[in-house]
Write a structure and sequence with these properties.
Blueprint (H helix, E strand, L loop, with lengths): L5 H10 L3 E5 L3 H9 L4 E4 L3 H4 L11 H12 L6 E5 L9 H13 L5 E5 L5 H9 L4 E6 L5 H4 L9 H17 L3 E5 L3 H10 L4 E4 L7 E4 L1 H4 L17 H17 L22 H8 L1
Parallel strand pairs: 1-2, 1-8, 2-3, 3-4, 4-5, 5-6, 6-7, 7-8
The structure holds 3-methyl-2-oxobutanoic acid.
Length: about 280
């Protein structure tokens, strides 16, 4: 098993090998996704929505990102581990941004950080990268700017906006980003950006012309039956499966059919096992 690094990702782009990326928020999921061969795991601030139940990613804090990143880290062996810098952790001073990026690596165990925004973040990217922390850029629909963008809507549909996104991608590569996320933009534009830059470009709602794809794991698994955006393919209906399994459990407990004898312990000594519990208690007394 060879660890995926930022060099691996660059070589994959050069070889035309597609990159797979998924979000993870805890060790159990991270272990499963890592063992399934996912190249990159992202501790996304989408956890604010799918784990914490907020309407946006905006309330997520640095402490929470460090906590979830450290949990994911314990489940990862092969995948590259990148963590989102949460809202407010890099939009202030550059020094603050560098300090927060370092904390996500030192305390959270991340191997790189991701931040949202275009050319206006060039200096932040440069300074974080200079501190030894690789930076993944994220442009297009940037959920931390949801209020500025007027909602979760497709970006870059006019010539002027497409030009701006194209220039942002080039500026972020120049500033030192090792990879780029393109979220919710026309496929033609993302394909053009992917061809124009030398760094791996990973899309979400950005069509098939990118160097890789990322999805929120809860969306891929169909955890929320009420959430079905166009760009998500549900590989499972896990929300329905979980609801049905839990309904069966509730029913069996209510009717006394769970636990059955096969799930229960007996006072009889089982072959090869230690002394029965009751006997043990009476010998202690
Ligand atoms: O927070 C997140 O999960 C993300 C991905 C959707 C790219 O930024």
């Amino acid at each position: 098993m060879k660890k995926v690094t930022i060099n691996t990702l660059r070589k994959m782009k050069q070889a035309g090998e597609r990159i797979t990326m998924l979000t993870a928020y805890d060790a159990s999921f991270a272990r499963l996704l890592d063992r399934a061969g996912t190249d990159v795991l992202l501790v996304g601030d989408s956890l604010g929505m799918v784990v914490q139940g907020h309407d946006t990613t905006l309330p997520v804090t640095m402490d929470q990102m460090v906590y979830h990143c450290a949990a994911v880290k314990r489940g990862v062996q092969r995948a590259h581990l990148v963590v989102d810098m949460p809202f407010g952790s890099y939009q202030g001073t550059v020094d603050e941004a560098v300090k927060n990026a370092i904390r996500l690596v030192a305390e959270g165990g991340a191997e790189s950080v991701k931040l949202e925004g275009g050319a206006e973040y060039s200096e932040v990217v440069q300074r974080i990268a200079r501190a030894g922390v690789p930076v993944m850029g994220h442009i297009g629909l940037t959920p931390q700017s949801v209020h500025k963008l007027g909602g979760y809507v497709v970006q870059g549909r006019t010539e002027e906006k497409a030009q701006k996104l194209f220039a942002d991608a080039q500026a972020l590569e120049e500033a030192g980003c090792y990879a780029l996320i393109l979220e919710m933009m026309p496929s033609e534009l993302s394909a053009e950006i992917s061809r124009a830059v030398g760094i791996p470009v990973i899309g979400i709602g950005a069509g098939a012309g990118c160097d890789g794809q990322v999805l929120v794991i809860y969306d891929l698994l169909g955890m929320n039956p009420d959430f079905s955006p166009k760009f998500v393919k549900k590989y499972l209906d896990l929300g329905v499966l979980i609801r049905d399994a839990v309904a069966r459990y509730n029913d069996e407990v209510k009717h006394g059919t769970f636990p059955g004898p096969e799930h229960s312990f007996s006072a009889e000594k089982e072959a090869g096992k230690s002394a029965p519990v009751l006997q043990l208690y009476s010998s202690v007394k």
